[in-house]
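Please review the protein record below. Let me know how this chain folds according to its tokens.
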Amino acid sequence: MKICAIGDLHGNLDKIKKIPLEGVDTILLTGDLGKADLARARFFENLKRKEKGLPEKEVSNEYREKEFMETYESAIETVKYLSKFAPVYLIFGNADNSNYKIRKKSKKIGKKLPFLADDLRAMNNVNLINNRIVNFKGVRIGGLENFLDTNWIEEFKPIDYEEKLKEAKKDTEKAKKVLRWFNSLDVLLCHQPPYGILDKINYPDSPHHGLHAGSKVILDYIKKYNPKYVFCGHIHKGEGMKKIERTEVYNLGEAGHKIIELQLKRKN
């Protein structure tokens, strides 16, 4: 059986169309599905403003709606394209909004926004597996959605440290429970890499250059349960493969891909 895992799509349809998908049995996606050019540009602009002691740039609600729809529409378009080739299993990354977050955003900007999760679930051949296990023809695949690990807070020390630490503690405990429930897997599909593995920030101009942005929770899981494969993304410049004991970890970067062949487990 052929499995094609693809890194953070970010709506990069031109790159995705170059992936040889004929004959693939299933497609796995590591999250961050839609294009976020507008939101990313605003984020980095505000980062520079903070460094200069300036307030964040104010934008209109219409512009915030435009940012959201850029991400939403490109996510739907790219996933729909992939679903024509094989069943798609995907998780959410940090750039993908849950229904809860979309409700809050809609209320804040006074605009009715579409629910990405609901619209993905309504698509043929598309399966959202946030914190779920699927058994695909005898292959156990666990999907762990993006979460805020406490070690990230300790490493990066954001301005809203106390608030983020509370959020991270809840997220981390939930992720630990999910991974204990997963137990042994053939494939772990997650968004962020394991800590210290293909997870280093590599932007010389950034104050975070050289820091590790991976998850210690994921690293601990891999060391304990040794899944055959781990597919992740999030840190695009960490793209590559490394082994943790018997586990092959692939950071697939932005729309990078890896095709593997697994033997089906047949009953006697």
User: Anything to note?
Assistant: The longest helix spans residues 61-82.
